[in-house]
Amino acid sequence: MAAGSISEDEYWDSIIFFLTLSSKIDSKWTIVDTKDGRRFAKKTEVFILSTENKESTMNDDVIRNTELMEEQEEDTAAFQVRGNSDVEVVTYEYHILYSPSYGVPVLYFNAHTQGGKLLALEEVWKRVPDVYKERLSEERWTFITQQEHPLLGRPFYYLHPCHTADLMKNSPVLTDKRHYIVSWLSAVGPVVGLKLPLEYGKLCVS
């Protein structure tokens, strides 16, 4: 197995550890069981974005509604922005799956507007924070792209896993692979607006 990769058993150990941390911190992540008995981790996040700049990204100045219960997210956010043409509500749905081919986790996601319209790939690229824009311009088609969700069979965007093992091989997380998901998600999640609270890292070292 390549340095920086993990086995599927190690992946699930890390997912269970990650979900345990989530239950203590924000209870945002859940496990979804598909009809054919397969599983993935899921989180939904609502973002309230300024429309003053049509090139809006998922930077720190984006207003984030992080306290909403998943079932009430869109309704509550819609109430908050009703009649305000300067903002738009975008809902991101994040999934974590395992790639047997690469031996690493993969972050899949979709994003849709308040009216239910899925964001086009160009719109997703525009929302990548500025700090990642140079890499995006160099590796656009191997950075964020779209393919059929391996478990759901419908189009999803995803962060391509081809560089994940290299990213993770020098991580101190390899001394305890239960921490793998926390370390990996902390590194790649912000590309698409997904930021872990610092408490995740603190609990890993406590």
TrEMBL record:
| Highest taxon of source | Eukaryota
| A single cellular component GO annotation | cytosol
Which Pfam families does the entry link to?
Autophagy_act_C (PF03987)
UniProt KW keywords: Autophagy, Transferase, Ubl conjugation pathway
* Annotated GO MF terms: Atg12 conjugating enzyme activity
Biological process terms from the Gene Ontology for this record are: autophagosome assembly; autophagy of mitochondrion; protein modification by small protein conjugation
Similarity annotation = Belongs to the ATG10 family.
The protein here is known as Ubiquitin-like-conjugating enzyme ATG10
Species this chain originates from: Magallana gigas (Pacific oyster)
